[in-house]
Amino acid sequence: MSTAEPSDKIALTGGSRRDRMRRMGDQVFSGLALGSGVLILVALSGVALFLLIQGWPALTADPSQIPGGDGFVNYVAPLAFGTILSSAIAVLVGIPMAIAVSLFIVFYAPKRIAQTLGAFVDLLAAIPSIVYGLWGVAVLGPAMVGLQGWLEGHLGFLPFFKGPVTTTGRTMFTAGLVLGVMILPIVSAVTREVFSQTPRKLIEGALALGATRWEMIRMTVLPFGRSAIVGASMLGLGRALGETMAVALILSISGDVTFNLISAGNPSTIAANIALKFPESSGLAVDVLIASGLALFAITLVVNMAARSVIARAERGAR
Amino acid sequence: MPETELGQQIATGTAVATPDPSSRGGRTTHLRVKGLNVHYGDFHAVADINMDIAPNAVTALIGSSGCGKSTFLRSLNRMHELIPGARTEGLVELDGQDIYAPDVDPVLVRRKIGMVFQSPNPFPTMSIYDNVAAGIKLNGSRISRSELDGVVEWALKGASLWDEVKDRLKGPGAGLSGGQQQRLCIARAIAVQPEVILMDEPASALDPIATQAIEDLLLELKKDYTIVIVTHNMQQAARASDYTAFFNVGPDGPPGRLIEFDTTQKIFGAPSNEQTAAYVTGRFG
To answer: Which of A100, A215, A261, B214 could make a disulfide contact with A172, Cβ separation 3.0–4.6 Å?
Structure first.
């Protein structure tokens, strides 16, 4: 290596062709990244536009022409109710379970068991939803009849468990449980990753104060992972809201709007309703189904935006 | 503070500023280490440590990196067990009770033997007040709000932080300067009223002024606590400690061993071991 000859001025212009090529690479990459971002916006607004245009006839049609004869809002409201109810059960069941699984894998399980268990939880995501549906109908539903009977007997004063219990097990309760299992892997994958990133010095700080493992988790891991828990829950909720085949198979649908989770009369969900009705629909009925898809799209959008504002507020509070 | 026999001896002036091990008289040794070996899996980290750690004094652990002094420090409240595969042989006695006895709960050991870490680690989502109160509220203890207020104030005063934060106790602990955060962590540690406080290079991430504040605090804290401190700073060990233990690894590498343990005056003035002399005069390490 030779030392540089002292020169009159520092070279700021020129530079080799290769240098400029490298800068070109920067520009190409930045263009690609921008393009991907724009593509997402285009796809999203394209879907929204498709739903709006195709569903428009149903939104403007004479109420008597809509199936049910009461107008679109009355048609879609029970479906939206069923969608939200089944998703709420899924979230109530699936998210605590997912967090518990993540905590067990990260902080309690011996290393080898943790890795195996983590892989199995991830595999849950690979099961097709129709298989979940079949499992719900053939296995979980019948198995849940006893529990649902117990709930009716002991908690029957609550509107959720008023009964009468159906012997098929094809209830909102069962559907919600299956949805809960279905959202478990995505929620667990996100929270597991974040929990394992908890700064070691915080964990040690808590344990050095004489905290038990659970107290350490409450003091450091959960506050640290709070926004990730909310974000993961929203991903799970999004999946539960849009889930189609499992619900379509499991629920015995009557169209009733009821909080009664264990009887034979259940509201359908928007997605399941589209899947079940689409093959036999034509003309305005198709438009109505597409418009109900628009309603689902709107629900998901609102839920996501609400979640984002919750996260933003939580972050601000933490600072 | 609990009125202990030791506390009374301090109050009546039986303790001297730089106590001599031979003239310790009838005082109990709070922490006694006998034949301690620590392994991480196949790795033998420290070997055959014997040490009587004097109460109400500052004991400094010095030695070059990798000599096992931090592992030894952590083995004094079983924090090293967080590393998978950690194994310990030998005795560590706190007032005559072996902290490694099978029926001993490490959680309770750590309530009696607290710890302050190298980089300040206040809980980021908690206020200054809640950080200090965090340890007190553990293990299902019930304490009234006014009592808690009192303990928090007492601990913050004990850590020389009260005057700086008394007007913003509800503010975030992470908003303090590095030196203040470290004193907050000391307040958090003393709030649970431990017997012993272990410090793992508590001032190495701080500027000279904040370091001075921590060293001044050590002199105050040793009136009530037994303090063991790991430091890489020779001047700090010489200034702030009463006893010094020099650790080193053999020519073949680990395990680390205790080479010499004596009063700080002796270690820095007239060390009896050649390695110690070389280290404290800066000829190696």
So the answer is: A261
